[in-house]
Specification:
Blueprint: H1 2-28, E1 33-36, E2 39-42, E3 57-58, H2 60-88, H3 94-121, E4 144-146, E5 152-155, H4 156-173, H5 184-207, H6 212-216, H7 224-242, H8 258-277, H9 285-313, H10 318-332, H11 341-358, H12 361-366, H13 374-392, H14 407-439, H15 446-451, H16 453-458
Parallel strand pairs: 3-5
Antiparallel strand pairs: 1-2, 4-5
Helix pairs in contact: 2-3, 2-4, 2-8, 3-4, 3-5, 4-5, 4-7, 5-7, 5-14, 7-13, 7-14, 8-9, 8-10, 9-10, 9-11, 10-11, 10-13, 11-13, 13-14
């Protein structure tokens, strides 16, 4: 009897040891991965028992990378975008533009914490989320946010901060369209209205759980529709409604410091690596793909804009090269996580030429005084990038799409996303500008515009006389 008991005990011990070893091997084995839209997702596997399901984990490397990416996006806005815009305006308006970018970015950051995060990511919905996380209710140091890998999580505060920077810089981009002539109070009030009724719904539809465009399969890795088309269209509407600057078409309204513009463009390029590669939400090969595509597409756009300008205007300009860099960054944004490097180069080459036309030929056709060419670069570049994402995500062209990827059907989905974003942003912007005009007035008096907004709106000047 004792021998029987001993044999049974040994048998159970061996079985237990084998089971533990198998479980350990399964846990340590790399997950089978498939790629969809350039984002790594877990391949379909039989549902495991609850007891053996892998636990959600927070990787310190992911956290460190996402904190760094968030800082890079802040760097894009302040000082990057501020200096890029500041150098493009006349010296008498430089401080006003710096002030608008800084304060709008800050204002939207606060609104993001109050209700923006909740409406964009606080629940499921076709067009908007919900109010469950207003004032960040329920968010603690222990709450987690999803990534693109089911078992990989981030501290929710990290995800909140990262997305806040996107909202802030999107609203700040619009400043360039009505620079040098809009009331400071009007800028702030418009930013609140447009952020609430345009940015948040579009962000949720593209990125939020249950969002309409996300469920349709629209590809927007880092914000081609949410950020660039959205802001570019709002800026164009503003340029029409405010009217042209005093002296536009009769006087030379030239940039006062292309040196600062070059510095700002360089900061934008550096910060954009956080913008694009950070959108992978993990420090994995997906982030590396977005990183290298951001590098190659931007460099390509610099060259294509420069050569197009050289050919058509006789001389390549530094302003053109810097503008080309921004155009390439914009165009690769929706595609950076789902196209291959060669596809990124083609997108960059196309962006340089098309956006060069956008700020020259198209601008003349539209007849609007878009002061710093927000629509010509961000709107046009965003539309181009969104459509070409549907082409170069194809696996046959080096993209990460599935084997049954259809270029024609994906381009149609991309076009639908573009159309919805254009119409939504235009309608919201038009109504918002009209409301602001009725409450505080949109434009500064002509005398104030001639003297400059630095002194008339803020009581200071950038340079001593």
């Amino acid at each position: 009897m004792k021998k029987l008991i001993l044999m049974l005990s040994l048998g159970l011990a061996v079985l237990g040891f084998s089971g533990a070893s198998l479980a350990q091997d399964a846990a340590s084995a790399p997950a089978s991965m498939a790629t969809e839209s350039g984002i790594a997702v877990a391949a379909a596997t039989p549902a495991p028992d609850a007891a053996s399901a892998p636990a959600a984990t927070v990787d310190k490397g992911d956290v460190a990378w996402m904190l760094t990416a968030t800082l890079l996006v802040v760097f894009m806005a302040v000082p990057g975008l501020a200096l890029f815009y500041g150098g493009l305006v006349r010296s008498k308006n430089m401080l006003s533009v710096l002030m608008q970018v800084l304060v709008v970015f800050s204002l939207i950051g606060v609104l993001w914490a109050v209700y923006g995060y909740s409406l964009a990511f606080g629940g499921e919905g076709l067009i908007i989320a919900g109010l469950d996380k207003v004032f960040l209710a329920g968010v603690t140091v222990d709450s987690l946010a999803d990534t693109f890998t089911p078992t990989a999580k981030l501290p929710e505060y990290v995800f909140i901060a990262f997305q806040a920077t996107f909202a802030g810089i999107t609203c700040a981009l619009i400043v360039g369209s009505f620079a040098e002539r809009m009331r400071f109070s009007a800028v702030l009030l418009f930013s609140v209205l447009w952020f609430t009724f345009s940015y948040l719904p579009i962000a949720h539809m593209v990125w939020g759980a249950g969002g309409y465009l996300l469920s349709k399969g629209a590809l927007d890795f880092a914000g081609g529709t949410v950020v660039h088309i959205n802001a570019g269209v709002a800026g164009l509407v503003g340029a029409y409604l405010l009217g042209k600057r005093v002296g536009y078409g009769r006087e030379a309204l030239t940039p006062h410091s292309l040196t600062l513009t070059m510095v700002g463009a360089s900061m934008l390029w550096v910060g954009w690596f956080g913008f694009n590669a950070g959108s992978n939400l993990e420090a994995t090969s997906g982030a590396a793909l977005a990183f290298v595509n951001t590098l190659f597409a931007t460099a390509s756009a610099v060259l294509s804009w420069m050569f197009a300008e050289w050919l058509l205007k006789g001389k390549p300009s530094m302003l053109g090269a810097a503008s080309g860099a921004v155009a390439g960054l914009v165009a690769i944004t929706p595609a950076c996580g789902s196209v291959g490097p060669m596809g990124a180069i083609v997108i960059g080459l196309a962006a340089g030429v098309v956006c060069f036309w956008g700020v020259n030929g198209l601008k003349k056709l539209l007849g609007a005084d878009d002061s710093l060419d927000v629509f010509g670069v961000h709107g046009v570049g965003g539309i181009l990038g969104a459509l070409l994402t549907g082409v170069f995500t194809a696996p046959g062209l080096g993209g990460t799409g599935k084997a049954d990827f259809s270029i024609a059907s994906q381009v149609l989905i991309q076009a639908e996303a573009v159309l919805i974003t254009v119409v939504w942003s235009a309608v919201v912007a038009f109504v918002a500008y009209k409301i602001v005009g009725a409450i505080v007035g949109l434009r500064v008096p002509e005398e104030a515009e001639r003297e400059g907004l630095d002194i008339t709106s803020h009581g200071e000047t950038a340079y001593s006389s």
